[in-house]
Amino acid sequence: MREVCERLPCAEEMRACAAAFVTRVTARNRLPLDYSERSLRLVDFLIDGLRKGGTDRERVHGTLLGLGAYVGEVLVRRAGAVWVDFDAGQRAYFGQPAGVRMGDGRVWNPLGKVVNRFEAGGPEESLQTFYLTLHGRARRVAA
After folding, report:
1. CA-CA distance, 36 to 38, in Å (whole number)?
2. Which of 9, 23, 29, 71 would bridge 110 by S-S if both were Cys, CB 3.0 to 4.6 A apart?
3. What is the chain's pLDDT, residue by residue, as a tens digit (143 residues)?
4. Which of 21, 15, 103, 105 shows the shortest CA–CA distance to 61?
5. How many domains does the chain have?
């Protein structure tokens, strides 16, 4: 499955890409990648570590893709999103073949958000903040 995360997977491959990434990363480290919204803070931290290491984007392409799939899977599991293949216009706009659609019909590009965090850094590109301010996110009903 690692080879899927080395290229740009389609929507139906994203869940497997996220799972393979989590398995690979957590096999050596005790990282709490549990698909919770809290774990997105760790994703921010991991991307910041890649940036501080001075690594160029091409060298960490597979890692960024795995992190993007993971962020998208958090949206699927916690915010009511579904993985979708982008149409031609969306692919041209986002530069990715797949993303997520929220319950209100809005589409988001978690892979692009991860790349933005890597390239720009800073709190305005936080993936945890992205989740918390996400339009169209399903709200949990208090029991």
Report:
1. 5
2. 71
3. 344 455 678 999 999 999 999 999 888 888 889 999 999 999 999 999 998 878 888 889 999 999 999 999 999 999 999 999 999 999 999 999 999 999 999 999 999 999 999 999 888 899 999 999 987 777 653 33
4. 21
5. 1
